[in-house]
Amino acid sequence: MTDRASTWHAVALSRKVGTRPHRVMLDGQPFVLFRSGKALHCLTDRCPHRFAPLSQGRVIDDAIECPYHGWRFDGGGRCRSMPGLLEQTPTIAVPAHAVREQNGLIYISPGDQRGEPYAGVLSGPGTVSSVVENRVRSTLLDVAENILDATHTHFTHSGLLRGLSSRRWKVKVSVTGGDGWVEARYEGEPRQEGLISRLLEGERSISVGRFVAPGIAELEFWGRDRINLSTTFHLRQEDDDHVRGFGVLAGPMQGGLGYIKAMLFKPLFMIALRQDQRILTAARDNKPPGARPVICRLDVLRPSIESILRGERPAVADAPFDIIMEL
Ligand code: FES
Ligand SMILES: [Fe+2]
């Protein structure tokens, strides 16, 4: 795992996008997704005429029709007709963007393309997976850190991910990284005692938390010799105040997650997400403008996630480190 930087953002569930236009936001910019025939398209969701949202129009004859004056744009963004104009249609276009579809998700890469869409550590045949969608008033940095942060679970998720006892174990955490990614590997922790862990994890020995550009926060839980469970969050900053994520829960079909466990797991997982949502929003609303948070030795991933989000190589890429902590 040397270079994981990618510019692909997961923006929608495949099944949510049909021939009706579908608007998504990414970093404050609107995009519209639509299908015509077998093709999937992504355009900037703004008609160049009077800036009406194309997503409020309809798809007709392989083109998207603006709801205001009916200009039609093909999948490449080119204007194909202007109702009422008897002369030739002038050369006008809306920006079109690279779009891909895999594993039930639609990815876009506005601007320069780099790398591949991230499929998740467990995907493809032999894997069972389930997706949840979530939106929270926060920043991508805070949400990614929250997902990967092992030190909040005792408090935010007491009883669910952790047991009610205050027992902690000494854990060795190894932090490594590279261009566009960072990960922390936790060794020495016996199986967690909370409800979710009991249900799913089996004999856990090692777990890994990882961030991959541009917005992947992923956890993997190892059994004796393989990953028993992974959760891959595809996060994106919709606008200054909101982060939307798709959380893919995955496990091996045989003996691992299984369909029944997956069904039981989803509601518990939603409870955990709501607990996180509540604390993230409360912290966000309580933050004075411009205030900088205290970063402590236990916050092993945050500085790297910050660098990666700025497009820089994290320092840990050239200086990996270990720390023993009590979890
Ligand atoms: S605003 Fe789109 S056609 Fe006029
Ligand atoms: Fe959490």
Essential attributes:
Rieske Iron-sulfur Protein, binds FE2/S2 (inorganic) cluster, eight-stranded antiparallel β-sheet, binds fe (ii) ion, 5 helices, alpha+beta, single chain, 327 residues, elongated, 2 domains
- Annotated CATH homologous superfamily of the largest domain: Naphthalene 1,2-dioxygenase Alpha Subunit, Chain A, domain 1
Q: Identify every distinct bound molecule in the structure, by name, code or SMILES.
A: FE2/S2 (inorganic) cluster, fe (ii) ion
Order of helices and strands: EEEEEEEEEEEHHEEHEEEEHHE
The N- and C-terminal alpha carbons lie at a distance of 27 Å
> What is the count of DSSP helices, taking H or I runs of 4+ residues?
5
Looking at CATH, which topology of the largest domain would you report? Answer: Naphthalene 1,2-dioxygenase Alpha Subunit, Chain A, domain 1
Low-confidence stretches: none
Mean pLDDT over all positions: 89
Main sheet record? 8 strands, antiparallel
Percentage of residues in strands: 35-45%
Work out the number of β strands.
18
Class from secondary-structure proportions = alpha+beta
Pfam families: Rieske (PF00355), VanA_C (PF19112)
Protein name: Rieske 2Fe-2S domain-containing protein
Organism: Bradyrhizobium zhengyangense
Keywords: 2Fe-2S, Iron, Iron-sulfur, Membrane, Metal-binding, Oxidoreductase, Transmembrane, Transmembrane helix
